[in-house]
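Try this one yourself first.
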């Protein structure tokens, strides 16, 4: 089936709802700016000028298409299924994030905006948006929790070298959720001159739809490449990590209407199942609202977003994209969780067996593939390797060693 699928044609509805999830719950002063973004996206993004410029950027600046790689050594060692990787770590800046950041910045340029504002956890979204701002000559302000600034120092350096202002966030848990809160407060001060370039398939409408659509390139390429590599076959299983869930929605779009392709979103189980020890929102969350949209949320006894943990800074968020909540409810996507220890083992193993150092976020998906491959002889698993681990190597080496 082509990418003009029946699912994508009907989801979300005109108000940004994926079944019971999504929508836009905004303070009055942001209702008009968000409506303008939705209108501009519907009008500008489908124009020949926008698509032509974005296609040029994808090819000549980002370095797309990124390849699909067959993990021969890892597959042979595990037995069972053959494991493939969609190499988004080879996208410029080292992760899938640039796919939507360049498009969001291009939209901002067409709208006459002067400044890009965003949050970041692992720093990959911050680096990507700072890159896009430099490319288009826009100002850039990145909000980042102090905990993540310490963990992801290489990406902080990159953001500053690219000209972005990095705003440390020191309240609450000092991680991704608080960075989002801080970025929204900054955006409230100047919605006319700025655009809040949300870093995942989260937030009020139209951002879950926009970011998903801008990440569609991953699924489009992966489908064509896999068919070419396997003489016309589709993968039996497609696996991606899920925090907010942008990389997963990107690759899932290539296969969403193929009933014979099982889709898996892998969440961070962290240190255990107790509240505060993990960030497995789909697995343990409840219906609620966070940051202007309705989805599944991890909440405390007072109904507030709960503290969360993951070894991967990009996954420690107490909510999830509304489309993921919907796909979980309908059963189209299966969600599972991988803990910190399994993630580290996968981080080391992919590095040693394949010569590829994955981001800790991506290592969650690799860990799941390693876990299930021996049980699936003759089948194929396509993992979205959403980012490379350069940003994580100091943190891992200093705290856990070299995997000897």
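Now uncover the answer:
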């Amino acid at each position: 089936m082509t990418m003009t699928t029946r699912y994508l044609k009907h989801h979300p509805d005109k108000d940004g709802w994926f079944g019971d999830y999504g929508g836009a719950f905004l303070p009055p002063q942001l209702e008009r700016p968000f409506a303008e973004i939705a209108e501009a996206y519907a009008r500008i993004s489908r124009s020949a000028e926008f698509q032509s410029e974005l296609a040029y950027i994808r090819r000549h600046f980002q370095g797309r298409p990124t390849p699909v790689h067959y993990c021969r050594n890892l597959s042979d060692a595990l037995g069972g299924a053959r494991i493939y990787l969609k190499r988004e770590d080879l996208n410029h800046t080292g992760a899938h994030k640039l796919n939507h950041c360049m498009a969001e910045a291009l939209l901002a340029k067409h709208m006459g905006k002067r400044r890009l504002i965003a949050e970041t956890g692992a720093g990959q979204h911050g680096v990507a948006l700072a890159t896009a701002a430099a490319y288009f000559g826009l100002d850039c302000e990145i909000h980042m929790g102090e905990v993540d600034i310490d963990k992801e120092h290489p990406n902080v350096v990159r953001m500053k070298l690219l000209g972005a202002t990095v705003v440390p966030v020191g309240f609450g848990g000092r991680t991704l959720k608080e960075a989002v809160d801080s970025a929204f407060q900054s955006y409230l001060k100047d919605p006319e001159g700025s655009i809040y370039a949300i870093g995942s398939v989260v937030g009020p409408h139209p951002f879950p739809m926009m970011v998903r659509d801008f990440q569609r390139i991953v699924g489009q390429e992966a489908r064509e490449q896999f068919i070419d590599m396997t003489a016309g076959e589709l993968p039996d299983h497609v696996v991606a990590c899920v925090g907010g869930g942008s990389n997963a929605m990107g690759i899932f779009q290539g296969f969403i209407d193929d009933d014979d392709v099982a889709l898996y979103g892998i969440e961070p189980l962290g240190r255990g199942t107790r509240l505060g020890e993990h960030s497995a929102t789909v697995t343990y969350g409840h219906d609620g609202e966070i940051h202007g949209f309705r989805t599944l949320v991890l909440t405390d006894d007072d109904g507030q977003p709960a503290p969360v943990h993951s070894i991967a800074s990009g996954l420690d968020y107490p909510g999830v994209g509304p489309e993921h909540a919907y796909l979980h409810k309908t059963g189209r996507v299966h969600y599972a969780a991988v803990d910190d220890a399994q993630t580290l083992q996968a981080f080391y193993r992919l590095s040693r067996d394949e010569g590829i150092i994955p981001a800790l976020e991506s290592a969650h998906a690799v860990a799941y593939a390693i876990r299930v491959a021996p049980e699936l002889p003759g089948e194929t698993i396509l993992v979205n390797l959403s980012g490379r681990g350069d940003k994580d190597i100091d943190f891992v080496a200093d705290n856990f060693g070299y995997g000897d």
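Discussion: The mean pLDDT is 95. The chain has two domains: 16-59+97-211, 64-94+216-400.
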